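Lab notebook page, bench 4
Experiment: in silico fold of construct C2
Operator: M.H.
Input chain length: 404 residues
Purpose: comparison with the prior construct
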Amino acid sequence: MSSNVGGGALSRRAFTGILGAGAAAAASGAALGQAPAQRQGPPTVISNPPRDFSRRGAPTTYFSDPDILTVDPSFDNLVQPNAAIQRIWTGALWAEGPAWNAQGRYLVWSDIPNNRQLRWIEDDGRVSVFRAPSGNSNGNTFDYQGRQISCEHLNRRVVRYELDGSATILADNYQGKRLNSPNDAVPHPDGSVWFTDPPYGGQLYEGAPDEAGGPSNASGRINPRLGQPPEIGRWRRELPTNVYRLDPSGRLDVVITEEQVPDPNGLAFSPDHKRLYVASTGKGPGDRGPGGKGDIHVFDVGPDNKLSNGRRFTDCVVDGVNCNSDGLRCDVDGNVWSASNAGRNVGYSGVTVWNPEGKLIGRIRLPEVCGNVCFGGPKRNRLFMAASQSIYAVHVGTQGASPG
């Protein structure tokens, strides 16, 4: 999930890692009688050398983590004192779609280019391959019955893994036309599943391009069948980038059009399910539309599941930097926690937190661009962040509003 960012920042797919940045610490004075230079505080993500987030790193937290920044005093109530940001795993090509299984007490996420899902088990921190191949899955979530829902780029579909171990295809076409590459999904208590369908999976790295002549393979020089099962490589993009609602009856409806929100990406309901937040990211492969601007939109959800009053919630610009939104989650108070991909703007990638009025109240800085977030842990008070090659976690002073 994601694409271009403004202000000269690279897309996260071109982004290969931050090698280090920030000002060097001031040297102590040499003049006779001058006091030694004071300690500049604990190292942060923008320090030189950069902060070591691993368990081998030096202690960083002396009441609150230095990379958790309060912008508005209301954010202080959401910050857990003495809780440090931890990198709990690294080794993905591009980590996405974190989701928490409450019954099993594990985190699952996608490593899209490696065509696998991984699982982190809470009791001992062990990470293992959970599902491979995964259909180059992107977004994952758990519904209100505890079943995993995954959006597959490669197969251009949404699937549900049932409690008996079988799998069900929830949606793979709309009005007979194959979906583009479902990206993120959220469950509703009424049993419906809402999902976005941008074109980001139509590329070699995260899925398969269109057949020859399709928007992401117009020249036909790319062979989309190489290394794939026999049914792959025979589709081409036919649909605009819509947001869909899958009714429990199986009916699939467009709820947000490409004209309303171009290239929709992350989704999140407010705690009362009366609002739907949608991240609008940049252009995907072969995208001829306007492309998103990395902002977040919000719609009112009526009792008939019809959306109205669509408007921009925030432009995600912080200090003049586009913190390009991707994945979203709401806490129980309705605050929106958004993954931030600020490209090479070191110190602005991570997470931005917005109150229900769209005001920035806090930030979490990470050394890698962040694609998606979720709340988990036994009390659902731990924020998990899928950021480029790694998974980060930090305890917070609130709980997530959704089951996974």
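Observations: The longest strand covers residues 307-314. The chain has no helices and 29 strands.
Next step: discuss at group meeting.
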